[in-house]
């Protein structure tokens, strides 16, 4: 199950890349910019602004949708997968849209290979994203192996909040790991992201011993990890990912990207009828990001880059 194929990307790995966004995630980060990716099933988005007041096609087709004086009321939990797929086809204005599409590996591989000429010219390739792509490890391993066999570079965006077996299945076929490291405090991570930071740390330490290249990416979120103390702890942990114990040996994990929080995904929460619990303003603290870069250059072997 995937929900987007984004071509000609230049921000998620080297060169020109195609991103395959897979559905399903094991975390619930409140700042997530792709909330439609959390469910491993189809997701229904509804934009009231595009809905026609005199149209009841969706009401007639789906008993879980009713119309009142205030507009449509959607009882999302009562809608079946079959009804979801049909709803997108019945809405004349696309006020109702469905996120998610099933496809076989052969069809996806064909799509990903359409831009091989651009990959070759730019040293680019394919990046698996989500959601959490490692929740579909068999598919990712299959596609990544095929891509490597035809000389296409592979990368994956992941938080590693999955069983180690999922990671091990994919690891031989991934050239670059773009790893989210959101915090180092277990309790705060559980409170905000609803997951186990211990699992992520363990997986990350284990992966650092076998990965070809790791880029740590830190979303800097107001109220969550936007203090010098918290960023220092993250930088120190990332700098310590050294499988052999030799301070000169961890060449596969020397790069860390700071990703300032933005609000570009807020509207999706309204379309999904989901609450949004984070700030409605982007991070505006350049001094903190500059401090983190200076600290890293003086205290760690990390190359810290701020990505807009």
In short:
The protein is of the alpha/beta class and 308 residues long.
Count of discrete alpha- or pi-helical segments spanning 4 or more residues: 11
Number of separate structural domains: 2
Q: What share of residues is helical?
A: 25-40%
DSSP strand count: 12
Family: Belongs to the organic radical-activating enzymes family.
GO molecular function, one term: oxidoreductase activity
Protein name: Glycyl-radical enzyme activating protein
Pfam families: Fer4_12
What is the strand and helix layout of this fold?
Blueprint: E1 2-9, E2 17-22, E3 43-46, H1 57-61, E4 65-68, E5 71-74, H2 81-90, E6 96-99, H3 105-112, H4 116-122, E7 125-129, H5 137-149, E8 153-158, H6 164-170, E9 176-180, H7 186-193, H8 197-207, E10 214-220, H9 228-239, E11 255-260, H10 266-271, H11 286-299, E12 303-306
Helix pairs in contact: 3-5, 5-6, 9-11
Describe this structure in words.
With 308 residues, this protein is an alpha/beta fold. The protein folds into two domains: 242 residues, TIM Barrel; 57 residues, Alpha-Beta Plaits. The chain contains eleven helices and twelve strands. An eight-stranded mixed β-sheet has the order 1-2-7-8-9-10-11-12. A two-stranded antiparallel sheet has the order 3-6. Strands 4-5 form a two-stranded antiparallel sheet. Strand 4 and strand 5 form a beta hairpin. Helix 5 packs parallel to helix 6. The longest helix is centred in the last third of the chain and has 14 residues. The radius of gyration is 21 Å and the shape is globular.
